[in-house]
Amino acid sequence: MTWNYRIIKHDLRRPTYFAVHEVFYDDGGNITSWTSDAIDLTGGSRKDILATLAQITDDLKTPVLYETTMHKIDKKRSKIKLVQTCSACPEQYDAFLDNKQVGYLRLRHGHFRVDYPDCGEETIYEASPYGDGMFSEEERDFYLYEAIKAIEKRLAKGK
C-alpha cells in the first residue's frame, strides 16, 4: 500500500472548500481510503515541518479529487448493501448485511435519519440535506455513505 497528499474539493456542502488529505492506494494504484480530517501540519522540529511541506508541495502536482467521487468509491467497498424501497417523498432504503436487515434510511421533509436495525428502533444518524423528499444527485452518495458508516460503527459496538 502507498499513500500521498492530495487536495480534495469538498463539494457536497455549501460553501464548498478545498483541503489537503492523506490518500491511500492499493498495489494497483486504486484509491482505497483517505483521512477523514484534513492534515494538521505539526512536527517535532522546524526541519520536520519543512520536510513535510516539501513532500506536500511535490504530491500536490496531482489533479484535485472530488468528495462526491471519493464517497462513491467507499460505498462500493462496503459489505452493507442498500435496497431502495421508495424513490421519493420519502426516499428510503433498507440496509442489509449477509441478508439480515441492519438499517432503515429515510429522507422526508428535509430530515434524513438512519434507524438500527429497523424503522422506529434506535436512531443512529441524522442530518438535514438540501433534498426535501429525495436527495439531490450531488448529495446522495455522501449521505448514503455516512449512513453506511453509522451502521458499520453501530454493528462494531455490538448489542
The end-to-end distance, rounded to whole angstroms, is 34 Å
Rg, Å, rounded: 18 Å
Number of E-type strands: 9
**Beta-strand residue fraction:** 35-45%
- Average pLDDT: 88
Number of helices: 3
- Main-sheet strand order equals 5-6-7-8-9
Provide the structure class.
alpha+beta
Strand count, sense and barrel status of the largest sheet are: 5 strands, antiparallel
Give your account of this protein's structure:
A hairpin with a 5-residue loop joins strand 8 (111-116) and strand 9 (122-127). With 159 residues, the protein is α+β, with helices and mostly antiparallel strands. The mean pLDDT is 88. The two termini are 34 Å apart. 29% of the residues lie in helices and 37% in strands. It has a five-stranded antiparallel β-sheet with strand order 5-6-7-8-9, with helices on one face. Strands 3-2-1-4 form a four-stranded mixed β-sheet, with helices on both faces. It has helices at 46-59, 67-77, 137-157, and strands at residues 2-10, 17-25, 31-34, 65-66, 81-87, 91-97, 100-108, 111-116, 122-127.
